[in-house]
Design goal:
The chain is of the alpha/beta class. The two termini are 47 Å apart. The relative contact order is 0.09. The N terminus is likely disordered. The protein is 33% helix and 20% strand. A hairpin with a 2-residue loop joins strand 17 and strand 18. It has a domain of 107 residues.
Length: 478
């Protein structure tokens, strides 16, 4: 915060100091400053733990393709005596199996041949392009803003479902650490970025679309944003012309990757006060917290959750089901149970999107359904709020509801939880049971149908949207 001195040509900077957190039980959560580690630090991290990793060369190559970042908080949570099998190590450190052996060999050969930086960068870019870096037709979700003298696409917004708009603020373009399975890895390497430079376009678009009730601030991770940025987004939404905006969702992994953001960081108090003020004016905030394993629920996390709830925020939890990390019903049951115990609401179990290192982490739909159902059996109804296993694909959120024998055919029972066409929501349909399928496009319609009921209309929606935007852009240039 800047404060003017008496002399007009001078100023002083007043910094708020980080502070430890005193818990209600009298114990203390010591502040841990945010210290990040990148690809060039991987070897030194292993050395600091007395480890000679046999796959170091492969990990460094994988980290050239998929972005790597971790911080001290996560390093301290990893069981380094058994790091190969530790879920948080799998969650954050590059794994050799995330690339094919021949892909690793390709980059290794170029490194050994002293290829130029440009040649290696091109090879890495080509590899990324082969990994379906923009799944679920995300670019088609960018909306248009129409004004009297111009029309333009909002690069940092997505509007796929009628009542929800996503915003990717320029200050939310990174995370406190990167998940190895991140489906937005392309965002961090500067390709096809979703980025909104300020809040003006968001507010202009919302004023033109009163069907929107919810805004999801996402990224990257908006948990990296400062309080003044949150305020610039949220405060205008309390004005009468935005009475249709009821809910702000904040998609973040800060509660696990850097819980001190809401607890002891210098900006924590101001951020919580911003949230409180927004809620006091009749709006609602849901923290859409990303938890992959119960080992992420540290004491600092629990205290940060308490503090968010005290100002009126709900905390809802979600994560994809991933091999090596949480592909076990006991993990999900224990995680959901702990979350409910401290006031969080289990919200979604997702299927790994068909992007990036999916082949390494993917869990077949049949196994995911088994894990989901077995986990629920171990818990009371309070923990049954999590929906899933759900695929966030182009047509919408499709949930695997069960497996049944119908008319002599073994089938998956599927249901739209959300649809690009709102009329698809809650529509039930059927696919042939397949032990190996991991995504909707690997499933075949049941009962001899040639295609699923939504496929023809979905293709028409995508095509008509593209044609309409092209015509509107051409008109605005005339």
């Amino acid at each position: 915060m800047f404060q003017n001195n008496v002399k007009p040509d001078s100023f002083k900077i007043e910094f708020k100091q980080a502070k430890d957190w005193l818990c209600s039980d009298g114990s203390t959560v010591n502040h841990k400053p945010y210290i990040k580690f990148l690809r060039t630090d991987i070897e030194s991290i292993f050395k600091s733990k007395g480890i000679k990793d046999p796959y170091l060369k492969e990990r460094l190559i994988v980290a050239q393709v998929y972005p790597f970042k971790i911080n001290q908080h996560i390093i301290d949570l990893i069981d380094w005596d058994h790091y190969h099998f530790d879920p948080l190590f799998q969650l954050t450190f590059p794994q050799p199996g995330m690339l094919l052996p021949e892909e690793i060999a390709r980059i290794e050969k170029m490194n050994e041949a002293n290829a130029t930086r440009e040649e290696i960068a091109q090879a890495i870019s080509d590899l990324r392009s082969e990994k379906n870096p923009a799944p679920a037709n995300q670019s088609s979700n960018r909306p248009m803003v129409f004004e009297d003298d111009e029309s333009y696409e909002c690069e940092g917004l997505q509007h796929k479902y009628s009542n929800t708009c996503l915003m990717f603020h320029k200050n939310a373009q990174t995370c406190h650490a990167y998940c190895t399975y991140c489906f937005r890895f392309n965002q961090f390497v500067g390709k096809d970025k979703f980025l909104e430079k300020d809040s003006d376009r968001l507010h202009k678009y919302l004023s033109q679309h009163t069907e929107i009730s919810d805004i999801l601030i996402t990224g990257g991770d908006p948990g990296t944003m400062k309080s003044d940025i949150f305020d610039s987004i949220m405060s205008p939404l309390t004005r009468p012309e935005f009475k249709h905006i009821k809910n702000i969702r904040i998609g973040t992994k800060a509660l696990t990757y850097h819980p001190y953001r809401f607890l002891t960081d210098p900006d924590a108090d101001a951020t919580l006060e911003c949230f409180r003020s927004f809620i006091d004016q009749g709006k609602h905030i849901s923290i859409m917290a990303h938890f992959s394993h119960y080992n992420e629920i540290s004491k600092a996390t629990i205290e940060a959750v308490k503090r968010l709830r005290e100002v009126g925020c709900n905390v809802r939890t979600q994560a994809p089901i991933m091999r090596y990390i949480n592909d076990n019903p006991l993990v999900w049951a224990k995680m959901w149970e702990k979350q409910v115990e401290v006031g969080m609401i289990p919200y979604y179990m997702f299927i790994a999107r068909d992007t990036g290192p999916q082949a390494y982490f993917e869990v077949p739909l049949a196994k995911a359904l088994y894990i989901y159902q077995e986990a629920r059996k171990k818990l009371s109804g309070l923990s049954h709020t999590a929906r899933g296993p759900s695929m966030s694909c182009g047509p919408g959120k499709i949930c695997v509801m069960g497996r049944e024998q119908i008319a002599g055919e073994d089938v998956f029972v599927l249901k739209f939880l959300q649809g690009r066409n709102n009329d698809w929501t809650d529509r039930v349909f059927f696919a042939k049971y397949d032990e190996k399928a991991t995504w909707i496009d690997q499933l075949e319609p049941a009962f001899g149908e040639k295609e699923f009921f939504f496929e023809k209309e979905y293709k028409e929606i995508i095509y008509s949207k593209t044609v309409k935007e092209e015509k509107q852009c051409q008109t605005s240039l005339v």
